[in-house]
Amino acid sequence: MKTVNCYTCRGYGSIQEGYSVFKCSYCQDNKKIILEFIEWERSKAEFRKKTKDFLEALMSLKLEVAIEDWLIKNKKPRKFPKV
How far is 59 from 69, CA to CA, in rounded Å? Predict the structure, then answer.
């Protein structure tokens, strides 16, 4: 076990860092706040992943449409027989 400064009250109390017990002599509510913070981070990560997947799908679709438009506008030149 290691004694470190409390994460919530920014060093006013000290906690014994163990497996799952977070006790602070100043705020006595560190475990609940840390669990809420972890849950908030997890939900933010899920939102970021959904947004990233949506943007990747949108960009790939736009890229395919742009390539098709370019191929329609720039048709292959006709090959003329060599003389």
Answer: 15
The secondary structure of the chain as a DSSP string is -EEEE-TTTTTSSEEEE-SS---BTTTS-HHHHHHHHHHHHHHHHHHHHHHHHHHHHHHHHHHHHHHHHHHHHSPPPPPPPP-
Say which amino acid occupies 51. Answer: T
Q: From the first residue on, what is the mean pLDDT of each consecutive set of 10 residues in the chain (83 residues)? A: 61 55 56 62 81 88 86 75 67
Q: Report the distance separating Cα 32 and Cα 15, nearest Å.
A: 14
| pTM score over 0.70 | no
Q: Are 54 and 41 contacting, i.e. CB atoms less than 8 angstroms apart?
A: no
